[in-house]
Amino acid sequence: MIYLDHAATAPLPHAVAEEMYMVLREQYGNPSSQYRMGLEMKHRVASWRQTAASALDCPADRLFFTSCGTEGDNWAIRAALWQNRHSGRHIVTTAVEHSAVLECCKWLERDGYEVSYLTPDQQGNITAAQVLEAVRPDTALVTVMLVNNEIGAVYPVEGIAQGLVARNPKTLLHTDAVQGLTTFSARTLGADLISVSAHKIGGPKGIGALYAGPRVKNLRPLLPGGGQESGVRSGTEATAQIAGFAKAAELRMANLEKDQAHLRAIKDYAIQRLSEIPDLQFIHRDGAPHILAVSLPGWPSQNTVNDLSAQDICISAGSACHQGKPSHVIAALKLPKRTAAGVIRLSFGPETSEADIDACAAALRKHRETRLPML
Questions:
Q1: Residue 154 located in a structural domain
Q2: Which one of 94, 196, 227, 252 has the fewest CB atoms closer than 10 angstroms to its CB?
Q3: Into how many domains does the chain fold?
Q4: pLDDT tens per residue, range 106-152
Q5: CA–CA distance, 308 with 303 (Å, rounded to integer)
Q6: Looking at the domain assignment, is residue 375 inside a domain?
Q7: Environment class of residue 40 by beta-carbon count within 10 Å: exposed (0-12), middle (13-18) or buried (19+)?
Q8: Is 158 exposed, middle or buried (0-12, 13-18, 19+ CB in 10 A)?
Q9: Active site residues per annotation
Q10: CATH assignment at residue 232
Q11: How far apart are CA 93 and CA 245, in angstroms?
Q12: Minimal CA–CA distance to 321: which of 98, 69, 117?
């Protein structure tokens, strides 16, 4: 199998699975229990939190474990609005955010909040000036993702954070950094709230984290209950998943420079090989080194995905979260109909090889030559 869908989820290394299995079988104590096994697990969770925090370059006591990126996004947005409840009910976001952000915003609109959805250009770019221009005196929150999960565009979160100081210092800034984990420093990025997910870096599904910076006062829980996670995120700690998160972060950080250089080289090679396919268009060539969005205009993306799947080549027609539905991200780019309908996403990992790219390029060329266009 050739796996080119790392933006959907990354393969789980054996070392991560072994770490999780050991916790499940041998270190299964509840960290809230007061006997020795429970206290040992409490210390282990603290150690794993420190390791995960190192991947964000943030203080461990400001990082709180969640079940996933979706929970982190929803928690961050609602906590920010609660803190600024006396400052205003206006939110600034983009039309190309992950559904976890956009659906939360839609719910909030029903509750009386006003949301400004910023549209990118046809390459998917959004500028800091564009975001800051939308900020008003009553803007409680700006939420802009760090890396777009469908096209790989990188958004200027640091520039937005710097601009907010002058534009409206009360406005809090959240970023969904799920696709950018290990590529930024929370200390310098400037976002007040950062949500991440472990399974994008080789950790297990079902575990993520939320960073809350020093400007976030009295972080309001999304899930009240027994008071775990320093009283802000209740629920018995998912110790095996947390251990897997920490191990995946440790592995990624140990090889970070090498892996990033490899991803950049693989993306450049993919651009070179795919450029040889007639009519193929690049939607966004720059941005994150692990995501490349292209289109075969006239060839519907789901047909292309199905054809390659039959050859054991895994690519995506967009975000896995859409489950085959039209992508709001591609719609926001306002591309010609035939181009938009043909968009596919290739996404790479540390183990992706040039041979994988060669096979994918050959399969796409054959698909174009043997399947009649339908649009």
A1: yes
A2: 227
A3: 2
A4: 999 999 999 999 999 999 999 999 999 999 999 999 999 999 999 99
A5: 9
A6: no
A7: middle
A8: middle
A9: 321
A10: 3.40.640.10
A11: 28
A12: 98
